[in-house]
Amino acid sequence: MKFKTFAAFVGPSVFMMLLFIAAPLISVFIQSFQITQPVMQQIEVETCTPGFLTQTCTTEVKTVPIIDEVTGKTQTTTAWVGFQSYQNVLQMDKFWEAIGSGQWRDILQIDFWKALRFTLMFTLVTLPLVIGVGLMIALAVNNAAKSLRGPVIFVSLLPFIITPVIGSLSIYWLFVGDGILTATLERWTGQDIAMFAQAWTIELLMYFYRVWHVAPFAFVIFYAGLQTVNMDTLESAIIDGASRFERLRYVIVPHLMPLIIFIALIHLMDCYRVFDEIIGFRSQAHVISLQWLTFDFLTPDDAGNRAISRAAASAMLTMVGIVVLLILPLRRTWRDHKGGAH
Amino acid sequence: MSKATAQPLSLKIASGTFLAFWCLIAAFPIVWIAVMSVKSPRDAFAASAWDVITGPATRAAGNGLSLLDIVIGLVVLYFAIRWAFTRLPGLVQQYSPSGFIVLGWLVGAAVYGLIFVLIFFGVLPYVSGALNSIAGPLGTPILGLTTEHYVAVWGENQFYRNFMNSMIVTAGVVTVSLTVGTLAGYGLARSGSDLAFWLLIVALVFRALPHSVLVAGYLPWFINSAEILRPILGDLSPTLYGQPWAIIAVLVAINQPFTIWMLRSFFQNIPAELDEAARVDGCSHFQAFRRVIMPVMWPGVITTGLFSFLLGYNDFLVTALLLDAQNQTMVPAIAGYFNRETTTTDQVEAVAAAVSITAPLFLLVMVFQRQIVSGLTAGAVKG
């Protein structure tokens, strides 16, 4: 295919990605070093209250934003502030203070480090669970009678296809103060249980939700992979006296290895973006993630201001994280590509 | 299956039990919110599961189904579903003009849904009400059921506006991203150049980007776009913030990396000899694409379209930040319930809204299960 034709085919897509993905990235990068504030001026205001004989007048100096006469909006200035926004997000002084005094736990009081801790832990805890549960379901379905497989796949797809916010809400409602599962647990244990009052129970529910949501995806892929297992290899393994577990360990899992890597890669990308659970479980007081942190900076506060530069700084930091996570898989792909070309 | 691979009974039982357990876990939260949404608040948050299912308080308030209602309902449901699978495809084939079969299906499904809702919720209650009064013990309510929360959500809270916005955004995302993505996917599949490889790698990195990073980039521009664009467009320059079509463009772009990867793997499955033959016969690349590839590409396109649909429909982050309250889609709108979720009635209304959002997805899985599965595996097997 000639370059011109190729460009014509790919052009619209590349244009959209440049305009709406690459350009915003550059914009975020620049914003994270800038800060935009309303221009303030100090004016003397004389306020008089009626009094006996004479009015009582006081003058005071007030700081008010300058209003542009043409547009009627507040004037703003944009200044380069270097790494100040990053400093505001990272709060390194508090970080080093906490390390210096040996109070490691204080680090997790800072929003960014709290979010980073949760995001990484969330990714690492759910990854093996998703792969394990997905593989188990795939093996069990492969074992089941043919007529059962269709309905089972249908039911399994439901958690995967459901809107993430709604999915986490549906689990939230089961465990909320007077939800059915909390009531049942309380009856069994005889104690009061409040699942959403402390961080660790919320985190457990989030792990559960994510595994529930993603395991079907792993299952479907593993199930497709199981259909292509080489029967001859399996039979020779039986003749060699391999037990059921050894066959799984030495024949089936190696066969599924590329799929496991694929799922791990996708899961890594998606888990790093963990966000909807925070909304669904309303856990912002206890557990937050990196993406939620940026979302929170971007949401207008009570005065209607958005912390754009801090959002940009936290977005850039989030991006650094995903690049670090992706370097290894990408290098592998590059080597494969080079290897394939020769 | 040979004797050596035959499984001992204990293993069979274990695997069967595990599967049943998984199905229970997979379906339970979704089924449960559906049950909760049709009960009065006291029943919905009752401590005993049996009370939630049978709904004594709902029944006491005069809302309930009798045995007769249930039987009639199930019979109508059975025939409705059967008809949808046996007769509907034929009618759609017959009445849709050739080449517009997809459009025909959309219209057919919409009409079918409308008629179903009319019969099931419009006609059936009167019929069964009349029958109940003469049926005696069979006609007394045994199962509490009320639709008041749905009426409140869709009527008073005007959820249909959010529904319309969701539909506009989703339809836009699916159409545009498929049009753009199909061309790109085909180009990438048929070009073995290094440039194509690099494009795919960059797309992979873009796919990994958290969406909040991108939104942080859009927001200042979108809010001030009227002033920024004024020198170019004059007074027509729009404020992009809050515009559904701006959201469509954003979601299409976010979705592009995934779409081109997936469509590329589908196009690689179409033998290159097919379009080469067309080229030998004197077609240009575009003609070959239009005349030879387009007729055979629909399975892949439909599958990719499903995933685009899911992205547009399920999105919370982008729509919550870039749309204002009037143009809100369904998923962010439900967050509005959190703020006023003070009484149990509000909670159950939120549950009803959540079920309303899930219902179309449920239908989607029912109709397109095969395509979803093939889409999931296509990406994986090709890498």
What keyword list fits this structure?
heterodimer, A: mainly alpha, MetI-like fold, two-stranded antiparallel ribbon, 14 helices, extended, B: 2 domains, two-stranded antiparallel sheet
Q: Describe it for me?
A:
The complex is a heterodimer of chains A (342) and B (383). Chain A has 342 residues and is mainly α. Chain A has a domain at 104-341: MetI-like fold. Chain A is 69% helix and 9% strand. Chain B has 2 domains: 24-152, no CATH class; 159-382, MetI-like fold. A two-stranded antiparallel sheet of chain B has the order 1-2. The longest helix of chain B is centred in the C-terminal third of the chain and has 39 residues, at 344-382. Chain B starts with 8 loop residues before the first helix and ends with a helix. The model of chain B has no long low-confidence stretch (mean pLDDT 79). The interface between A and B is large, with 105 and 105 residues.
